[in-house]
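Need a sequence for this fold. Nothing fancy.
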């Protein structure tokens, strides 16, 4: 009888799940015999699956590293990548810009996209947007001491209100600065 034909050991106590059960090639190694074809194939399939999983993890780590060092991730690492992105203030800002300028179904579209305000083509992807914001105007300034709102004290503002969201036309501004930098209604 070869090692792969030996049934796996059951748990010592009744009703326990079996952990650490020796399967596949490891059974053959313990029995000091070469693995059979079935065990070799199963082991190769497991290694391929592990390899694919490791590649996916590496991509996620690279993506997280890039976003962290681009200034986009300001919160501590959370379990879920998409959840982390949704909680990042710069990501929320980027989504708002795209909605106002590109989605005709939003309430604010007539004041942005409807007026011809558009988003710089490169900024349609979050990674490029975050990198450009980091290099041109820097990360969002910290909130002043005593600021108790859930909204950030500084937000992204267009310097020229009749121009697009593009490098050189955005800055971090307080709500007072934004109130002073607005389009006045035209007399009819």
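Here you go.
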């Amino acid at each position: 009888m070869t090692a792969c034909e030996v049934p796996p050991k059951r748990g010592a106590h009744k009703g326990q799940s079996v952990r650490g059960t020796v399967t596949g090639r490891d059974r053959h190694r313990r029995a000091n015999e070469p693995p059979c074809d079935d065990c070799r194939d199963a082991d190769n399939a497991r290694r391929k699956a592990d390899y694919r999983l490791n590649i996916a993890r590496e991509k996620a780590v690279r993506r997280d590293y890039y976003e962290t060092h681009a200034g986009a991730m300001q919160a501590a690492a959370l379990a879920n990548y998409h959840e982390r992105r949704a909680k990042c203030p710069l990501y929320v800002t980027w989504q708002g810009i795209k909605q106002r300028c590109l989605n005709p179904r939003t309430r604010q579209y007539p004041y942005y996209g409807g007026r011809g305000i558009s988003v710089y083509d490169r900024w349609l992807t979050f990674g490029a947007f975050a990198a450009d914001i980091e290099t041109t105007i820097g990360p969002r300034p910290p909130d002043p001491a005593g600021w108790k709102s859930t909204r950030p004290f500084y937000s992204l503002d267009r310097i020229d209100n009749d121009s697009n969201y593009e490098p050189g036309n955005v800055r971090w501004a307080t709500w007072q600065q934004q109130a002073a930098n607005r389009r006045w209604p035209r007399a009819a």
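For context: Helices lie at 25-30, 37-69, 81-87, 89-102, 126-136, 175-180.
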